[in-house]
Amino acid sequence: VRFGNVLGSRGSILPLFQRQIAAGGPVTLTHPDARRFFMTIPEAVSLVLKAGGTGTGGELYILDMGEPVLIKDIINQLIQFNGYVPEKDIKITVTGLRPGERLDEKLFRDEESLEPTDFQKISKLRRKPFVTGDIDSILAKLKPICYFDKRNPVVFRNREVLKKILGETIPSFSYAYNEQFN
After folding, report:
1. Checking phi first, is residue 133 left (phi over 0); if not, alpha (psi -120 to 50) or beta?
2. Which tens digit of pLDDT belongs to each residue from 125-137?
3. Domain spans, the chain
């Protein structure tokens, strides 16, 4: 099952915002136009259990989470709920999007489509083949990157060549730099 953010779950942004407000601010916001999908724990649990009971094996389901919400609006509401005035009593600091992070959350890709199920808020995901080309020829292109070949040593563990091959092979491939893994 694929879905967005669950309010009140571990890793939820609400406790972070609450701590920042309790400390007098600032509240951190990645981007003023950032939007995310949200649902409550009871909604998520109910829909996940229904989806789990629907499948026969290997299916992927998407939960209808309604419209995405501006994170900035959530922050402003929380600040006001705590008795403060946004930007006057509690400042909001824009930190910028992290590598690979998007303004809008997407629950499915362009090469995927949704099919209705018996449950109103659950759709079945249909995937188009994500690989363009013959698997054997793709593996042949990847082999010199993974295994050293003295006839072509410059390709061994070459990230640029790997990104090029993956980009040509997988239409939805995008590369996000991450210092931890680079």
Report:
1. left
2. 887 665 556 788 8
3. 5-127, 135-181
